[in-house]
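Reviewer has doubts. Consider these tokens.
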Amino acid sequence: MILRGTAHKYGKNVDTDVIIPGRYCNLIDPVELGKHALEDLDVNFIKKVKPGDLIVADTNFGCGSSREVAAVALKGAGVSGVVAKSFARIFYRNCINTGLPIFECPEGVDGISDGDKITVDADSGVVTNETSGKQYKSTQLPPFMQELIEMGGLLRYVERRLSDKPQVA
């Protein structure tokens, strides 16, 4: 899987309350959630993000509450993945469960500026800053987790696994 887009760069400790404010957690439509993604951190985010763009962030991205809708909101806004120095553990798992690709790449974060064009090759774990021409190696997820993400998350994965099994009468 290849991800290409513009980098939207943020700092340390971006918490789930800022990714999607609690006042919107009653929404269930991903696109509606996405309309409010990061609005308390960057009021212009939703105006400038384009489908396929990526979030680039410093350490501990997704800290705070365990709201799964944070990952859903980013996907609903059109974000194709997140590159960060590190992720909060619960957010990390929520991304996998919802099918949002994530990449831990400290050197890449330091080498990418807001607005740079970037490409991420999920299969090889290579993050390329197309603006500067530099490449960085990210930590790769195990093949099983990559498969979960490619299928769109845990629910889609389980649905497919169940449909592949013979039904017992």
